[in-house]
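in:
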């Protein structure tokens, strides 16, 4: 019998050529996914670059850190000294209110000043139609049980306030606002005046490096039951 390779010369493919063919094919298969991955990698780098440009990735821009207590408030040492004259003086000035709010953020107790500000805005309502939606928002945010930013109120004040939400008046939150005001005045305000950022401000120095945030022990309403409320501040 004749050699089949002689009858069919087209089948006479050498082993070396066969190996070369598969090597080329294998290389082509590897290159395709590699090329496809390049745009994805580029997109990832672009996304990372955009994220790094966001404010929350910059430590110095975090409002809750003591080092930035007075960053947004360009005040002179003389003006800052006046904040120590009284709590009412501190809150009556925009820069002082801003600095105190940032201080409370470092102690995780900013709900007190946010409630006080909401009550101030509520009392500026010009029509009766504005009162009801604002009253419900304040109640659901700060007063009702397990509210997201529940403030510390005694049982009687909370009950009286709750009963008046259905038909709110301009004075509906006065008792609750006064209670929270007194708690801040006798608890948070003295610590604010002793804080390093405030002391550095009145001395004309740059704020010190931020420290770890901690939640302070807030006094309860019972701690001040002996104190007589003073509504003249309103």
């Amino acid at each position: 019998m004749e050699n089949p390779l002689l009858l069919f010369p087209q089948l006479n493919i050498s082993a070396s050529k066969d190996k070369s063919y598969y090597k080329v094919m294998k290389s082509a298969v590897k290159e395709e996914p590699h090329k496809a991955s390049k745009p994805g990698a580029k997109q990832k780098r672009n996304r990372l670059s955009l994220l790094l440009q966001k404010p929350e990735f910059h430590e110095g821009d975090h409002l809750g850190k003591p080092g930035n207590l007075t960053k947004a408030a360009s005040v002179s040492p003389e003006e800052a000294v006046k904040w120590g004259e009284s709590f009412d003086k501190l809150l009556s000035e925009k820069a002082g209110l801003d600095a105190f709010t940032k201080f409370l953020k470092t102690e995780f107790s900013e709900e007190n000043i946010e409630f006080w500000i909401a009550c101030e805005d509520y009392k500026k309502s010009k029509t009766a139609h504005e009162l009801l939606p604002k009253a419900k928002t304040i109640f659901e945010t700060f007063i009702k049980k397990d509210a997201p930013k529940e403030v510390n109120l005694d049982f009687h004040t909370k009950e009286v306030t709750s009963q008046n939400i259905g038909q709110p008046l301009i004075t509906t939150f006065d008792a609750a606002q006064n209670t929270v005001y007194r708690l801040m005045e006798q608890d948070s305000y003295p610590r604010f005046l002793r804080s390093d950022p405030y002391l550095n401000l009145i001395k004309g120095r740059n704020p010190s490096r931020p420290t770890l945030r901690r939640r302070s022990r807030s006094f309860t309403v019972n701690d001040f039951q002996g104190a007589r409320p003073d509504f003249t501040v309103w």
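note: The longest helix spans residues 15-52.
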